[in-house]
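As a warm-up, study this chain.
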Amino acid sequence: MAGVTASALVATASAPGGGTAEAAAPPPPIPARSTADFLDSLGIVTHLSDREYPKGEVILAKLRELGIKHVRTNSHVIPGDPGYGRAIKTSILLGKNGYGLHFTALRPMMSDPTEADIEAAIELRLKYIIDNGLTPYTEAVETFNEYDKVYPRVNNWPEALKASMIYLNAQRGRLAPGTDILGPALVGFDLPNTAPLMQTDAEGRPMNTYFDSGNLHSYYIGAKPESVFKDSTPEARPSPFNTYPGKLTKAINLRQRIRSYAYNISKDKPIMLTETGYNNDPNGLYTGRIDEKSSGTYMPRAYLEAFRIGMQRTFMYELYDEPSAMPQYQRYFGFYRPDGSPKPQAVTVSKLTILLGGGTDFATTALPVRITDLSAAGVQKVLLQKRPGEWWLAVWRPVSVWDYLKYAPIPRTASPLQLTFAAPQKVEVHKDVSLTRDTTAPSTPVTSLKLNVGPDVTLVKITG
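Now compare it with the structure written out below.
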């Protein structure tokens, strides 16, 4: 079973002259990032004007339950469109309750959009934000979502998309100070072919001149969420994102997609992961489908992993299942079922944010700790700090729990690892992000802790 077991959790005190050479060496200081920064990195796609979404008060309650404060939406922009008024009311409700809104623009779908067509499409979204009093709550505005996907229906999509970015950037003064303009969102797997088309404008200026943050789409297609990037630090993203990705025809994983995007488009700008997630399609229509239990394991890992490697913010797709959505494979990405009942991913993410909530604003400090993997399973970690003297270590085995080729669960196992501290620390273990403290953990300060960890996230609270 994943997590910590009573038979495998052992605390020890250091013994002078005893132990291995590794135990005698001082544990290295591991930089910590704040729990507040991690929680601020969490976002979710929410289709506020879609008819299968509930009323605003219910959406607000679900977001509070998840502990997620940032919403990305493509709500309808033309009065009279289905759900137009309801989306505005919900947006205002969310904004007044401290939720940040990210808006995408309506895509012009004529075969050869003119400059006037492009500007008119951007204006519809800007006027929607400004005229409806949403400016104070708008954190970011994007241009046309996955515009590359419309080819060959739109012949000149690269030029049209560049023109839309240039125009949107020129209008930023009409939005609240600090509102981000995001780069182009392109289909993730095709980035090796499309991203090179978006490098520069007609005068040769880099396109990252016109936006604040990159805008990446990368779905997991049933695979585990971990990448091979090194840990980010409190000061910087891993270096470098924007190295040459190699000669590719398709980008099949997160690493290839990040590098294709960063090398060609965002360069040294931060990147938001604005669409990602897992699909629980029970009807076999989606090739990357995964069962609900597995997505409950992967989702906290996915948020932590994106934060670990330095994604500025990560928006999971999406808040609710939409059983009438077209195409049909888009129907089962939700954290909640249409009746409002939570899927396992909603439960695990909610527990994660409850445990990590309540942090203060302060300068984080490193924690001297050695993490020794006592098996060959590998271990992934994120060290967070909630307040001075209180750290939270998230650890898990970066292994698959779902066979995305056979569409079947993979048996889960746990294996031991050891934490060694430079000085006695009080620990509190929450296996599988359980809200209940593991009662087999020691109640007095220890210098060493052995615990079994599996594919679900285990949180260890550490206080001096």
